[in-house]
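User: Sorry, what's this?
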Amino acid sequence: MKNMFLVFVGGGLGSMMRYALSHVINRSTTSPFPFGTFVVNIIGCFFIGFIIFYSARFGDRADQWRFFLATGLCGGFTTFSAFSLENISLLTEQRILVFLTYIIGSVTTGIIATYGGLLLAKNM
């Protein structure tokens, strides 16, 4: 239950941080490129990599910090960070076919699912 609370609090903070940073970045540019989301995703990827691999040296003693920072904060900040970490793990394990399938499948299916949701909402 304590771990769920840590994820809950971290996720809420991460979501608020994502909204604020994306809002500031998007307001400062007139480009059609989604710089806010792009920057948030890259920052989230950097921090989840740092948190997971830095905290590994502390073993089980860092579990609560990993739940709060990696799963909660980074997860709320961007789910792209978890996607990136999982792909790094697949590469590290030299599971190249699974890595490629996961990337191509996730991006393609995600875009199709988003479009499907848009079409469904549009036709309701």
Remarks:
- Residues 96-122 form the longest helix (27 residues).
- Residues 2-78 form one domain.
